[in-house]
Each structure stands twice: as C-alpha cells, then as structure tokens.
Amino acid sequence: MKILMVCLGNICRSPLAEGIMKTKLTGDFLVDSAGTISMHEGEHPDRRAVKTAANHTIDISQQRSRPITKDDFKTFDKIYCMDASVYKEVLSRAETEEERQKVLLFLEAAGTHGNTDVPDPYWGGMEDFEKVYQLLDKGCDAIVSQILV
Ligand code: 4NP
C-alpha cells in the first residue's frame, strides 16, 4: 500500500501528515507527501511544523517540499487531500477513472464528523499547528484502522 498526503505548499499540513502516518504504518507501506503548488519546492517543512512534530517526538526536519506529479497518480494507491480546494485541484489532474478513484479528502476518508477541511495553519500560530497535529493524528488512526482490517 502506497499513500500520498497532499496539501497546497507541502510545507505545513502534508509533511505533518506524512510524519504522523509513518509512525503508525510500519512494514510494507510507502508514505510520502506533495503539494499542488511548486512555490516551496526543495524547502524543508515550515519550522513551526517541524517544532510541532518534534513536540510529539516525530522528526520531519529532513523532508523536502515537492509538487505532485503525473507519476504519483500511477505510483500511489491512495492520495489523501488536506482540504476541499486541494481535493478539487488534485482531482482535476487525474487522467483516468482509476486515478480519480485514488483521490480522497483526508478527513472524509477518516470518517470525522463535521468539518472535512484540515485548516491551513500557514498564516496562524503554533496553537494552529498543534490543532492541525491533533486532527491529523486522529485522522491517521482512523485511516490506519481501515487499512489494517
Ligand atoms: P500547506 O500550507 O499547504 O499546509 O503547506 C501552506 C504553505 C504555503 C502557502 C500556503 C499554505 N503559501 O501561500 O505559500
């Protein structure tokens, strides 16, 4: 099973989602992340995301931002999008029905009630990053329990 986490810049939400998911899925899994924009390509995650992960003993400092590619739709089995606008953008780039079916809204797939967007913490503070961490941690638990049945 190969899982791709996707947000806008691939420096805040999806790097956290990648780091969290990697701690929960060990064994024959590939977990990676990407963004829909290439503005931050090659950069490490936002320092607030790195600090938030470190507060939970997860090291995401060596990740590098990259934009999603056509190949990702072939390589990955599940492509989890962090919010509705990312979902719409990623879906628009899928070229076949098989590729479209891989594209999922992360919190919807996790079965979380209420808001299905992981809020963008980029313009916020550390407390916003912690809230995102908690949403992602619970969401990853739910998704892992579906995958491991
Ligand atoms: P992310 O957050 O999509 O969670 O990585 C953002 C990163 C960068 C920007 C916006 C959101 N930006 O406008 O550069």
Structure description:
With 149 residues, the protein is of the alpha/beta class. It has a single domain (2-147), classed as Response regulator (Rossmann fold, 3-Layer(aba) Sandwich). The chain has 7 helices and 4 strands, in the order βαβααβααβαα. Strands 2-1-3-4 form a 4-stranded parallel β-sheet. Helix 1 links the parallel strand 1 (2-7) and strand 2 (30-35). Helix 1 crosses helix 7 (126-147) and helix 2 packs across helix 7. It is globular. The mean pLDDT is 97. Bound molecules: 4-nitrophenyl phosphate. 4-nitrophenyl phosphate is lined by residues 7-13, 39, 120, 122.
Which ranges are low-confidence, i.e. pLDDT below 50, for 5 or more consecutive residues?
none
Rough outline: globular
Oligomer: single chain
Largest sheet: 4 strands, parallel
**N-to-C span:** 13 Å
The radius of gyration computed from the alpha-carbon positions, rounded to a whole number of angstroms, is 14 Å
The CATH architecture designation is 3-Layer(aba) Sandwich
Helix/strand order, N-terminal first: EHEHHEHHEHH
By CATH, the topology is Rossmann fold
Give short descriptive properties of this protein.
single chain, 149 residues, alpha/beta, Rossmann fold, 4-stranded parallel β-sheet, 13% strand, globular, binds 4-nitrophenyl phosphate
